[in-house]
Amino acid sequence: xxxxxxxxxxxxxxxxxxxxxxxxxxxxxxxxxxxxxxxxxxxxxxxxxxxxxxxxxxxxxxxxxxxxxxxxxxxxxxxxxxxxxxxxxxxxxxxxxxxxxxxxxxxxxxxxxxxxxxxxxxxxxxxxxxxxxxxxxxxxxxxxxxxxxxxxxxxxxxxxxxxxxxxxxxxxxxxxxxxxxxxxxxxxxxxxxxxxxxxxxxxxxxxxxxxxxxxxxxxxxxxxxxxxxx
Length: 230
Description:
By secondary structure, this protein is an alpha/beta fold.
């Protein structure tokens, strides 16, 4: 028996550089996976236990409707793996424009608020839930030139940890994974002269997310879990 047999898992950002690994990892573990992003399609994953549900995460009503559809179709939401996010940087705080600030706020912080608000009521109904969100190691080790990104990931971590405190009574855990720079095609293209051997592979991050969503980690909540290749 696989560790996630019978679990309904909602994965945001399910087909991105990390999301594809996370989706495959949960499917391998026996979960019924609902993958969501703005442009996801059923053909993105051929597994019989995969369902694609596109959603616009910039709209709170759309995210609420997504959670309601998942719960109505599958009867519950056991796990939320919140992988969705974005990156913009390269400017000091003094030089960061409104567009970059708003992009990081919306993609990393507001989207997290919307999905937590939408999913938690369904988990509370069943008195069970596992929430794992992807933050960034930069949230605890800031770097110059990415202030908007860092601030949005710090906010994400605070929201998830607050959710853990507010919902411990309903057997809901909530944790944040803090990866270092990940070895993805997008990051390689953005930093072609970097030493890729010092970057963490997405498959290792996916393994950690799966572990935190499993019963093996039932006693782990309200934590920030760093993962890096250093």
